[in-house]
Amino acid sequence: MLVCPVAPENEVTIKNLLTAYESESNADTLYSAYAEKADSDGLHGTASLLRATARSEHIQASNNARLIRQLGGEPEAQIQPVEMKTTLENLTAALVNQANKIDSMYPRFLAENWSTDNSAAQTLTWALEAERTNARLFSEEIAQMGAVGRDSLASTPVDFFVRSVCGCVSKTR
Question: Is the pTM here over 0.85, yes or no?
Answer without folding.
Answer: yes
